[in-house]
Hints:
The protein is an alpha+beta fold. The chain has one domain. Helices cover 20% and strands 29% of the residues. The protein is built from four helices and six strands, in the order E-E-E-H-E-H-H-E-E-H. It has helices at 59-64, 92-110, 116-119, 147-150, and strands spanning 6-16, 32-40, 44-54, 78-85, 130-136, 144-146. The radius of gyration is 18 Å and the shape is globular. The two termini are 31 Å apart.
Amino acid sequence: MKKEHNIIHIDWDGPYSLEELSKVSDEVTDHGIYQIYGNHPIYGSTVLLYIGKAVKQTFGKRISQEKWGNTNNYELMQVYVGRLSGGFTPLEEIWSREINLAEKLLIYAHKPAYNAMSVNQMPDKELNLVHILNWGMFNNLMPEVSGARWTSEYDDIPNYNVYGEHDE
């Protein structure tokens, strides 16, 4: 039985300062993925530092738990929040699973500096069929991210060659 592609639409909003996080605390809609941008001593200013998730709690509550206020230049940090979107709201179990998959794939594809532990981990096999479409204010993220590209799904294609170099 062939598995279906899991297309995840993320509608991004921002930027918010750390002080403005109370604006993203709607218990019904403010769950999903977030990006934090700021200064990094090696990579420069206003770079993607971290990708995280807010599952079963709002962006405002989750991000405030991470103590970004203890970071140098925290007043310059910007937060973008991504809400999963589609034709209907799925069951909470499915919604949470898609948030988890999206976070893993976005971290692996973009390699933010403060997600160092997750960057080195090969994504789960379940990510092979995940395809993320970023909409709105997605900032420095790629507009599309495919698990087929970022996992090992196509590492071992038999007889893989440039067209024209195949045996007939």
